[in-house]
Amino acid sequence: MTLSDRSFMAKKNLLATTIGAMIFTVSSGATAAEIEEVTVTAQMRAESLKDVPMSVSAFTGDTIKSANLSDFKDLFAITPGISGETTDGFFDSVSVRGVNNNGFGSGSDPALGIFLEGVYQSRSGAAPTMYDLERVEVVKGPQGTLFGRNTASGAISMTTQKPGEAFAGEVSVSAGQYGRLDFEGALDMPVSEDFAVRIAGVHQEEEGHVKNLSGGRKLGASEVDAMRFTAVYDGIENTTVTFLGQYEDRISDGTIYRALGTDSDFDEVYNDQQGVDQSEIGDAILTIEHQMDALTFTSITGYKTHNYTYIEDFDGTADTIDTFVRDQTGDFFSQEFRLTSDNNGPFNWVLGASYYQEDLDAYFAGVDAEDFICAGAMEVDYELDVDSSMTCAELALAYPEEMDDAFWTGGDPWEYAPTAGMVIPGGVSVGDGMSIEESYTRGEYSGWGVFANTTFDLSDVTSLGLGVRYTQDRKIYTVDSPWPDTWTGGWNYQAMFTDGPITGDDTWSNVSGRATLNHDFSDNITAYASVATGYKSGGFDYLTYRVTDPAFAQDEDAWLEEYEWTVDSSNAEPNSFDEEQVLSYELGVKARLLDNRLHLNAAAFQYTYEDLQQAFFIGAAAVTRNVGESEGQGLEVDARWLITDNLDLYMGVAWMNTDFTGAPEELCEDCDGNQMAFAPEFSSATALTYTTDLGFGSLALTGEYNFTGEQFADLANTEEVKLDSRGVVNLRASITAPSENLTAGIYVENLTGEEYYHWGYAAADYNLPATQTDPSRGRVAGVSVDYRF
Fold it and tell me: What's the predicted TM-score (pTM) here?
């Protein structure tokens, strides 16, 4: 199908802005409108969504573009059951059905897998922007059998547009308030009868919306430039070769912190350090498909490289207290081979094997005011009634014994760290009297897996599915964290430091399985039951270490004092944590009713998640540990109803209950039975679209309402940083010319100016204040024009 043909089908009824899992088309003549079933590849083969025994939400590329969705986390607002749509490049807030992994170090991995053309993308700062897509599939629940590593909670699979058979193209321009300007274009160029290319690109920019009371421009600005080249060659008999190469450069202000109690409006903050979230990403993917008699052989080779810089003002106050820096580079290679049966008989299967290798270098730094550390230590650890504004120099004079005991001053006057004028990786300039605790890390990760997924037709209406995967992951993780040139060393992010690099080496293996039973009660109603296990590999902590010297176990305090809180490669390694495992049950029904004018999908689920990996603070030190077990139950329903030939309704809702147990005291006291973080009990997405022919063109009007219930931002269920419920209303209108080649539209997002935050952090030791992050953008109105040729 050519690009112009695809555009005609997608625009024919002007439902590109409708959010949902199906595509709506109207046949010629007097036939009544009906919903056309969409094809998905969630089971590594092309299948009708109705026949897939799992919860899948599918979105067309037109839906993604028309709804102004660019980051994968933008999907969460329109996919009930998934939350955590922060504005940075991290995965630490992402939650699927209440399964959340908040680790932000380079030695851990997220539980949600992101895939582009089958190649893994889930590394902080390395996930690509969404543009020029054919579709996106969001699959909930453990997906380890087919998708592989680190998909214990689910997977998001992105499929790009491919070249058409005729010369064609499209250009889209959108402009709106807050300096919003989007440009997206694509061009199909057939080079010969069996070779065609597609070039696509996007530019997006937006000004900030949060006033920085510390001075400077408004925060929340972003800019993206990306280009993709796709070539398809089918000149070899029964073989198609597809090459994708893309490059992206993007920058934003990252997370914006606002300290609780700030005397200002909702969208006004004090950030003395300019935040940065900047990525440079390159991808190359080679896919070869060869059709044999009754089989298809597929090879997917992927290479990814990225540079990522992240800077944040963590304290969110008017004072220079706490800045966090991450500067990262990485290279990733993967290879997957698959054999797929042709779906013609009662027994169908997919067999596969995969391998990956990743090299990741990451620099971390905590830059903190010495005066803040001194005052906090004296007040919290020594229980002195001190004024929090007192400096280290003043405290050393007023409390010489306590200051000597804490910071080894020897009773001398305080000597501030000579940090004035220093510039550390990430380009951060440091002022005088700052503690800089640095950690240089290198990860060498590799792994392989083999898998099989089968479907056997027990009868004409019942089928049994069985799948299994064996996975092995190895991580070699090196940390070099020298003592900082400050008397406050050991009182901030970490308690011990290293004399040269230390290395940990560990391997995790797992067998994940999946069983499904699918039954057609009629041509229009299908039900399924499934049980699945999932796995996420263990990892390493970049700020804490395990002392291997037997003498340490005999007397920890004496050992630390003798070695001056310093470890080396002969007596320590980075702390490691174990893998996570999940067991999930799901019952679902998929119905096609009212002469195929109503599509209804429902899924009830229950899971148990063991050895949950969580990052938290012990004092002022950040650690990652296996902390306990979570259980969750819920119900998800989505429906698409063509009320009339002109009126189309989509609604998706999710109810969820989560329960966390087994927390160590260091994480929280008496928190057994708490809700999981970022797990709202109720969320929904609704869209109503009306279309009509005006004679001079076709009109489409869409109203959207996305609701997210209140949710906790941490496992301790801290009330003061609990996120309130929110309801966001968006309106869109467009007119398409009779020739179908031109569409003009207007939109209003967040019509009512709903105010909400995206995350919250409880107060930490040493008077580090509680914060909430990323005040929402207010109402945004804009216009758009799409031209196709």
Answer: 0.92
